[in-house]
Amino acid sequence: MPRVRVHQHVNPLAPYFRFTPKPLDLEKVFAKSNLPLHLDIGAARGRFLLKMAELTPGWNFLGVEIREPLVAEANRLAREKNLTNLHYEFNNATHSFDRLLEKLPQEILRFVTIQFPDPWYKKKHAKRRMVTVELVETIARHLCSEEKVFVQTDVEFLAEEMFSLFRRSGKFHEAKTIENPFSVKTEREQAVENRNLPIYRRIFTKTK
Ligand SMILES: C[S@@+](CC[C@H](N)C(=O)[O-])C[C@H]1O[C@@H](n2cnc3c(N)ncnc32)[C@H](O)[C@@H]1O
Fold it and tell me: How far apart are CA 201 and CA 155, in angstroms?
């Protein structure tokens, strides 16, 4: 099956992506809506979550991605594989993201992953980066206490920027980790590891 072709990057500040999403109703997207929820932000083609959902039927997996055709393709694959614990949403993590998560029941969001987000190297493009004060606040609002956010990237300056946003929120305990805590790697992670390049990783545990 050929891969769907998409733009490599989209500008999350463009009007098309500045929509207000409907709050997600877990009962409509998962067979068992009360399972613990893992949220992957910037899921791309969603292969990481696809494998996680296959390996971990006792959890639900939600991927959020701004490139719409990838979301349609990933949901089609999940249906083909009869994975009723896997769903992807077309959404912009830097615009009204809190609204998407507004109806999540308390004590449901138990893991968040942010893996290799686009660095947007140029200074004039810095506002397009995915991890912002608002995103960190939204995660902190919905994630259960003592539960974790795993953040990884191969771009050093971006690692520092993201880690300091979590640090400065005052709502997480920070721990360095050399390894990915999962047995599954994202496509980008595999590509970086194949080239033997360094990866900067942190686990942030919500404290309050
Ligand atoms: C470099 S890719 C990494 C994909 C995957 N996490 C991995 O590690 O292989 C970053 C992904 O984040 C998505 N993305 C960028 N900005 C986003 C935003 N504001 N909201 C949701 N997804 C976003 C991009 O479209 C892209 O698929």
Answer: 11
Q: Which atom of ligand 1 is nearest to the CA of 12?
A: 19
- Give CA–CA dist 179/27, Å, rounded: 34
154 catalytic? Reply is no
Q: Which residues lie with the beta carbon below 6 Å from any ligand 1 atom?
A: 12, 42, 44, 64-67, 92-94, 115-118, 130, 186-189
Among residues 25, 98, 118, 154, the one annotated as catalytic is 118
Q: How confident is the model at residue 1 (pLDDT cuts 50, 70, 90)?
A: low
Q: Could you report the per-residue pLDDT of 28-67, keeping only the tens digit for each?
A: 999 999 999 999 999 999 999 999 999 999 999 999 999 9
Q: Are 162 and 153 in contact (CB under 8 A)?
A: yes
- Alpha carbon separation from 111 to 61, 72, 127, 139 (Å, rounded): 9, 23, 26, 10
- Residue 111 CA to residue 144 CA, distance in Å, equals 9
Angle (CA) 65 70 72, round 5°: 100
